[in-house]
Amino acid sequence: MLKRQGLMAAGLIVVGLTGALPAHAQADNYPNQPVTLVVPFQPGGGTDAVARTFAKVSAQYFPKGMVVLNKAGAGGAVGWKYVANSKNDGHTLTVVTAEFVILPLLGLFDHTYKDYTPLVQLNADPAAIVVPVNSPYKTLEEFMAAAKKAPATMNVGTSGTGSIYDVALSAFEVKSDTRFTHIPFPGSGPALLNLLGGQLDAVATSPAEASEYVRAGKLRLLVLMSDKRVPEFPDVPTAKEKGLDVTYGTWRGIAGPKGMPPATVAKLKEVFEKVGQDPQLISAIKAQNLGYVYADGDTFEKKMAAETADYAQVLKTLSIK
């Protein structure tokens, strides 16, 4: 059984935005108040970055502005439950990630994607393992050798129990015959800060979320859990190159509560189709070393359905409970 510890926190950040809706989009008087975009993780991680970029580019379509609310906890479940229980008038939306389909399968969240309205996918990134630049582990081989020598003594941070990085780390353990102590945090941002502070041996995250510290010479990427290397870090090997069949990653998008008025849903999907393909958004996402992927709401919902089935099998195979 993996040893897990927790750290919980939440924050509130307001992004004041102004703009004007096109005349044809004012028919049902939506939105008639600020739109709240709930981020279910703490500030500082990739999900928070995507949310802020999305909010900024969406400004022209929301005359009352958009409030970015960080509501962290339970691997994302706290924020998502908040949205599920909010008034379904389209004024409360949320950023969703791969954990959105994983947590219900682990019994850590009492809702599923079917209790929400997927609106747009914006991003996808592989999982990775990162260590401090002064770590004794300069290569993946050295990291695995140390883990095998002293099982469960190395502390590896994740973005929460049941998070995609938690699952990816578990899969890595199975494939590499290693064992770590998983230390879950309310987002990759806090995990990376604790790594920098010397409280952890490594963190399972995405290359994008660690990129600022990697480029500053503070952290080192050891491996990517992707099919191929990423352009931003061409020297970092994939797990497959090292003989480990481990391919995992996260995605991010926007969803609202179930039961929103059809006219509101139609308007949101129409607006988000424009925002999701806006050059400013694409440029900003790529500038943060985040992977850009666009999919409309219907395609996004089908992805969630497919991954629910896939992860159910993966979790069973890995015996993750």
Ordered list of secondary-structure elements with their pairings:
Blueprint (H helix, E strand, L loop, with lengths): L10 E2 L22 E5 L6 H13 L7 E5 L6 H8 L7 E6 L1 H7 L10 E17 L7 H10 L5 E4 L5 H13 L4 E4 L3 H9 L5 E4 L1 H9 L3 E7 L23 E9 L4 H15 L2 H9 L4 E5 H22 L3
Parallel strand pairs: 2-3, 2-4, 6-7, 6-8
Antiparallel strand pairs: 1-3, 4-10, 5-8, 5-9, 5-10, 5-11
Helix pairs in contact: 1-9, 3-10
Question: How is this structure best described in words?
Answer:
The chain has helices at 46-58, 77-84, 99-105, 140-149, 164-176, 188-196, 207-215, 262-276, 279-287, 297-318, and strands at residues 11-12, 35-39, 66-70, 92-97, 116-132, 155-158, 181-184, 202-205, 219-225, 249-257, 292-296. It has 321 residues and is of the alpha/beta class. The protein folds into 2 domains: 11-124 and 250-318, Bordetella uptake gene, domain 1 (D-Maltodextrin-Binding Protein, domain 2); 126-242, 3-Layer(aba) Sandwich (D-Maltodextrin-Binding Protein, domain 2). Strands 1, 2, 3, 4, 5, 6, 7, 8, 9, 10 and 11 form an 11-stranded mixed β-sheet that branches. Strand 6 (155-158), helix 5 (164-176) and strand 7 form a beta-alpha-beta unit. Helix 1 packs antiparallel against helix 9. The longest helix is centred in the C-terminal third of the chain and has 22 residues, at 297-318. Mean pLDDT is 89; it is low at 1-27.
